[in-house]
Amino acid sequence: MSKKIVNRQVAITELSKLSSQFVIVENPSYIHPNYDIFPLVKKNKTPFNKVIATVMDMDGTTTTTEVLCIHSLEYMVRAISGKLAKSEWNGLNHVKDYPNIIGNSTTKHVEYLLNSYGSMIIKSEAQSAFIKAAIWTLIKGKDVGRKNEVKNNLIALGLNELLFDKRIIQFQSARPDENKYLEFIKYAVRKYSKFVKLNQKEDSVRMGIDIYYQRYHEILERLLRGESQKIISELSLEKGKHLIEPLPAVGIFLAFVKGLLGKDASKLSKYIAETKLKKNPKSKINIEKLSNHLENLGTHFQNKPMKIAVVTSSISYEADIVLGEVFKVIQNEIKTWQLPTAKRKKLIERFSDHNRFYDAVITASDSSEIRLKPHRDLYSIALNKLSIPIIDFDKVIGFEDSESGLIAMRAAGIGNCVAVPFTQTSGHNFKAASLIAKNGVADILVKF
Ligand SMILES: [Mg+2]
Fold first, then answer.
1. CATH 3.40.50.1000: which residues of the chain?
2. How remote is the CA of residue 433 from the centroid of ligand 1, in Å?
3. 81-85, 270-274, 404-408, range with the lowest pLDDT
């Protein structure tokens, strides 16, 4: 259709040709208009062996990182209110808060938290927390995009002078030792705090976003330095686990659909049954039947491997570290799979680099903060990168743990979308899904 401006009536007529179901998505508060309406493709359930491509969310679907994101959001509220201890504030509420801080853009998550907990802000605490976060990002942060956003936010919040402080310029090119760094932070908080203007809601959102990212990226940097066990105990996370690991059966699922298992897939029936039983002890599984089924499916995918993309609202800096960790853990898992030694070796080799394994890795850095899930963009980019023609969109299966993600898929034209509820997203509304796999991706391998 050529570009033309139409009146309301024509718009309604044209829109109603697109779908019988629409979604209303609220935009960040600085966007005009304050919401968008877009059509959703009809739900469908394609038989698993007809599917030619898989698109999969990262946080909460492929990996356990959602816990770290939630921690960093909660930390942001603590930092701006000065209530760092649990005795001062109990923290975020699973039922009320989690559905609003998972699966959307960081801007929307922070906006929600400031609407809910903004009354707790203590101005001086917020000002110093922002300065600390900004300085960390500029001096110690690794992501160029983040550094540029922080520079922009410093100017927007009235801190031009800090941005051009002699030492900050010097430290960005030659990182100082820890003592000098801490000394500079103290000095900067003392000198510049009073200039941080938090007049409008948007100012607080900028500040909150920078504090959130700083916390999350500091954790990722520490993880890379091998401090993951220390972080687990500091954050009181479940001991004996990895800070970042794949969700149950994700490694097997990926190996399956990439056609790496072939007939040997039947040998994994016990492993898959156990994964399923761990999540749902009441499941009834006939191992022999499952073995035959897996053998057929393994052979099918060996002949016709699927294309696969990971699609995340995290930025590429985060996705690179997170997927790197996930693949390391999968490589270790493979050592325990009951497969011939040569096959295991080959699998470990294939899982040595996530960028080589996936046909496409789509992150927030491929789009813009204002077009992340539930907008369709990341999934549309993924379908294009996988070179799937529109006529084949019904042969794509998508996996998401959040309501926003499911809506984004259906907005991008993927009708076969599976909800894989994660502990943190069990409170989400999954009406947008064509199927809910309560036991994760293992369900899909067993059912179809
Ligand atoms: Mg997710």
1. 48-64+244-447
2. 14
3. 270-274
Q: How far apart are the C-alpha atoms of 204 and 148, rounded to whole Å? A: 18
Closest Cα partner for 353 from 324, 391, 321, 318?
A: 324
Pick from 58, 59, 427, 75: nearest CA to 235 = 75
DSSP state, 396? E
What average pLDDT does the segment 215-224 reach? 96
pLDDT tens digits, residue range 55-66? 999 998 999 898
Render pLDDT for 317-360 as a digit per residue (tens, 0 to 9).
999 999 999 999 999 999 999 999 999 999 999 999 999 999 99
Q: Closest Cα partner for 314 from 94, 73, 100, 103?
A: 103
**Do 400 and 101 form a contact (C-beta atoms < 8 A)?**
no
**Dist. CA 219 → ligand 1 center (Å):** 19
**Residue 340 Cα to ligand 1 middle (Å):** 34
CATH number of the domain at 48-64+244-447, please?
A: 3.40.50.1000
202 alpha carbon to ligand 1 midpoint, in Å?
A: 25
How close is the Cα of 225 to the center of ligand 1, in Å? Answer: 25
Antiparallel, parallel or unpaired: β 35-39 and 22-26: antiparallel
The Å distance, Cα 53 to ligand 1 centre, comes to 19
CA of 135 to the centre of ligand 1 (A): 29
